[in-house]
């Protein structure tokens, strides 16, 4: 196999339709039928408001205005809550930037000249201020009964040991370290250890295939891999070390690159050591190596704009992008959004179900909560093991006060029945949150009524890997909620909604969501490819950050996200590039051509539907279908495998050879009378054949 770069180029603006209105008319009607649901919008209770950090829209507006008019004072005062080894240069503006490509390269700088360390602020600071005995992590393993409690001082010691070990292996400031691990305490510890010594971590979600892992290791040339023998998730064993071995083989063949160190956590709950293959010298057991290291480690003071981490994410075209975040701005923005969006009070038990392999896990499992000295629950397993009440059982067990998850999880558990939820007490819950995709009204109402017993506000947080942390979200005590709406921008965030011509619109409207000014958490670049960073986010409309999402604004100023406007789909909250999926499908030797579209999916939000044209003379079969699906599993990961493979006689193309995805989307959704004008197609007969074959599939 070769590292595949996506061949097809689809322009972002090719797809101009609003793919998936968050508030479907049908759902709205269904909600209205139930009289209980008529009381919309939903206001926070008086009790919630009485202790909320921001308790009115007026208070928010005042703070928001200050954040826009006097960013130095606003962000400076939050930044001052942290330790800075040297303060940023206060004689210069707190933020310098250029968003306008016509005026020169795009750049953003916050707190320039300041020196700090995010690990120091997330751990040492709390220990030094006497909070060492408070709980940092509550870890719940896959099996009921496996658990660990880690205090801030324990966590600091373990982080220092690993930091010292990495230094011993030659890792220094600016080096990239790839982390491919399950949700065990050592995962956030690994991130923090890197941050402590100034190494740039690149966490790869432990559901990605060897191909994907190899691509990510090669792109940033990480000499060191931190991983784990394997992990049991539900009933399934994931042999992580085996995947690492395969990935490293690929790295040698594809990039002539041979990482020198693989530090492997021995997870004998999943796999005994003797079942794990080993390359002596390169492979080392974490527990054996790290335990003898000193539990104190010096801190590498980092300039505010030094890189903190890379996180690869999918774009509409091309290979995955290594989104780069820097130390100072990310630290401040992650911490401040955590505090206000989750209305954090000391003593809260916070649980974000995201994996640290995604940005949500970076910002709201690791950095945001720890910077606030919070107690975080992390869970290794899956919500349905040993049965579908697991999440609610964990909430009861640890007294979780704030629960943050993805709509897809909510929908899948809703479908299984209320009894799994109500069997456990949720009386500790105060606040709920969602992230990653639009939440439909029905799921929102269920989450609110059944999970939160009608008591807990829901923060529907919109943001992206590139934005670092939450951008649009309710502040839960400050204004009424509307199901499906992310409501208003966070402090310092200036959203604008453009029409098709790129003109800014006022008042209620619908259009492309862009952001006008830099906030501290914005990504600074794509690793090794600043040009691509500029082209992806700053070319379509000059002078602003283009999010790739569509949205609408209602008369209250509330913003509702309406879905991606480029060829990125969101399956179960996982961001997947259509181009990458197509390229994986194409890699099968018997596939002549393939195209994939997003279709609505009850549980996953969106699913992938693939049209595959076979090489002449090849007969379709179930075995072939499986092989083709396996190509996607191998090249990307299981989560990207299409739901449906439709054997297509051909694809509808314009005369210039461009695939008409609009038509494919309609066919996939059985909307045969909405195919629109097909006269510009090179061969309109293809459409009839596709419709016929679709009808016979049903
Ligand atoms: C989508 C995840 C609607 C959106 C933090 C965005 C959402 C992409 C929401 C980023 C939301 C995220 N409502 N859509 N509350 N949150 N999205 O980079 O399309 O994995 O552009 O970051 O997810 O996904 P990413």
UniProtKB/TrEMBL annotation:
Q: Which species expresses this protein natively? A: Sphagnum jensenii
Where are the membrane-spanning stretches?
none
Q: Which domain of life is it from?
A: Eukaryota
Alphabetical list of Pfam families matching this protein? ACAS_N (PF16177), AMP-binding (PF00501), AMP-binding_C (PF13193)
Record-given protein name: Uncharacterized protein
């Amino acid at each position: 196999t070769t590292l595949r770069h996506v061949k097809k180029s689809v322009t972002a603006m090719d797809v101009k339709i609003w793919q998936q209105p968050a508030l479907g008319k049908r759902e709205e009607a269904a909600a209205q039928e139930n009289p209980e649901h008529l009381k919309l919008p939903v206001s926070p209770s008086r009790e919630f408001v009485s202790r909320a950090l921001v308790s009115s829209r007026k208070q928010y507006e005042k703070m928001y205005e200050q954040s826009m008019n006097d960013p130095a004072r606003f962000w400076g005062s939050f930044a001052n809550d942290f330790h800075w080894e040297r303060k940023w240069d206060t004689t210069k503006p707190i933020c310098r930037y250029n968003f306008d490509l016509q005026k020169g390269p795009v750049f953003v700088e916050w707190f320039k000249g300041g020196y700090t360390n995010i690990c120091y602020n997330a751990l040492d600071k709390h220990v030094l201020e006497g909070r060492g005995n408070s709980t940092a992590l509550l870890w719940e393993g896959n099996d009921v009964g496996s658990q660990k409690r880690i205090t801030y001082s324990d966590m600091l010691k373990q982080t220092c040991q690993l930091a010292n070990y990495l230094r011993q292996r030659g890792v220094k400031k600016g080096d990239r370290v790839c982390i491919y691990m399950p949700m065990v305490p050592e995962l956030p510890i690994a991130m923090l250890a890197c941050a402590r010594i100034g190494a740039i971590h690149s966490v790869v979600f432990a559901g990605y295939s060897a191909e994907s892992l190899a691509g990510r290791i090669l792109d940033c040339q990480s000499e060191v891999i931190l991983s784990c023998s394997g992990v049991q998730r539900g009933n399934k064993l994931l042999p992580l070390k085996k995947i690492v071995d395969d990935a490293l083989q690929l790295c040698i063949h594809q990039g002539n690159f041979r990482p020198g160190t693989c530090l492997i956590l021995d997870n004998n709950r999943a796999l005994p050591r003797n079942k794990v293959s080993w390359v002596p010298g390169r492979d080392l057991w974490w527990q054996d190596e790290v335990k003898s290291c000193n539990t104190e480690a010096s801190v590498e003071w980092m300039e505010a704009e030094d890189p903190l981490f890379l996180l690869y994410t999918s774009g509409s075209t091309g290979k995955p992008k290594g989104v780069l975040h820097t130390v100072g701005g990310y630290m401040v923005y992650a911490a401040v959004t955590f505090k206000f969006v989750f209305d954090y009070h000391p003593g809260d038990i916070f649980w974000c179900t995201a994996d640290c392999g995604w940005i949500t896990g970076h910002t709201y499992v690791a950095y945001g909560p720890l910077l606030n000295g919070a107690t975080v629950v992390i869970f290794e397993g899956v919500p349905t093991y040993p049965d579908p009440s697991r999440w609610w059982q964990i909430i009861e067990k640890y007294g979780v006060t704030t629960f943050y998850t993805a709509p897809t999880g909510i929908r899948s558990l809703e479908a299984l029945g209320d009894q799994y939820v109500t069997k456990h007490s949720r009386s500790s819950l105060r606040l709920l949150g969602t992230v990653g995709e639009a939440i439909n009204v029905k799921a929102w109402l269920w989450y609110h009524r059944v999970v939160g017993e009608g008591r807990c506000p829901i923060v529907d947080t919109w943001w992206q890997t590139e934005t670092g942390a939450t951008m649009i979200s309710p502040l839960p005590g400050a204004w009424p909620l509307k199901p499906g709406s992310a409501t208003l921008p966070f402090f310092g965030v200036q959203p604008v909604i453009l029409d098709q011509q790129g003109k800014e619109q006022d008042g209620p409207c619908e259009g492309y969501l862009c952001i006008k000014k830099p906030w501290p958490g914005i990504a600074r670049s794509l690793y090794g490819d600043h040009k691509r960073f500029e082209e992806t986010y700053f070319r379509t409309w000059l002078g602003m950050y283009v999010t790739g999402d569509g949205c609408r604004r209602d008369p209250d100023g509330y913003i509702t996200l309406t879905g991606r406007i480029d060829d990125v789909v969101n399956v179960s909250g996982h961001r997947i590039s259509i181009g990458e999926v197509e390229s994986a499908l194409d890699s099968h030797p018997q596939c002549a051509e393939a195209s994939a579209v997003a279709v609505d999916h009850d549980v996953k939000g969106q699913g992938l539907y693939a049209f595959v044209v076979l090489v002449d003379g090849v007969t379709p079969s179930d075995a072939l279908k499986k092989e083709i699906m396996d190509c996607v599993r191998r090249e990307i990961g299981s989560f990207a495998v299409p739901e449906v493979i439709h054997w297509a006689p051909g694809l509808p193309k314009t005369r210039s050879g461009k695939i008409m995805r609009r038509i494919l989307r309609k066919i996939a959704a059985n909307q045969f009378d909405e195919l629109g004008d097909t006269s510009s197609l090179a061969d309109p007969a293809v459409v009839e054949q596709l419709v016929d074959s679709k009808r016979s599939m049903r």
